[in-house]
Each structure stands twice: as structure tokens, then as C-alpha cells.
Amino acid sequence: MKDPHKVLIHPKITEKVVKLIEENNTLVFTVSLDANKRDIKQAVETLFEVEVERVNTQITPKAKKRAFVKLTPEYKADDIAARLGVF
Predict the structure, then answer these.
(1) Domain containing 36: what range?
(2) Can you say whether residue 24 is alpha, beta or left, with left for phi > 0 and alpha for psi between -120 and 50 degrees?
(3) E strands within the chain?
(4) Family per UniProt (predicted)?
(5) How many domains does the chain fold into?
(6) Residue 75's domain is classified under what CATH number?
């Protein structure tokens, strides 16, 4: 397993992301370009002690990789976002 701190670079915070957190229980991170979905899932589960339901990734036009991490219903993305200082 890769180092979780090297996989997750930083959380993404925009109005759209706040809406995703509140409505879809989804967190968005900028991640390492060489990280795959399994690495991202393990990193989030390790660092935040939650269960991940699904991970979707996207490469931006600026050659950055974004990960949309949907948490299982038992865990709230609001709580994780608060710990990260989003709210």
C-alpha cells in the first residue's frame, strides 16, 4: 500500500463540492496522478477511519487528478469535512 499522505494531496473546496458533501455524502480530493482507485479508497479509509462505498476519478485539463469519494451511509461526509476545516 502506498503512503496515504502521498496519495491524497489536499481536499477540494468549492460551492459545488459543498453541495456534493451535503447531498451525496461525497468528498472530493486532489490526488497523486499515479494513484489508482484502490489506493485512494485505502488512503481515505486509513486516514479518516471511515468506509468508502465508491471512488470515481477524473483528470482535469490542467493535468491534475481529482477523486470523488462516496462514503457509506453509516458515515457522514459533513463530519470529515468539518475535521478538514471545510465548514
Answers:
(1) 4-84
(2) alpha
(3) 8-11, 26-31, 52-59, 65-71
(4) Belongs to the universal ribosomal protein uL23 family.
(5) 1
(6) 3.30.70.330
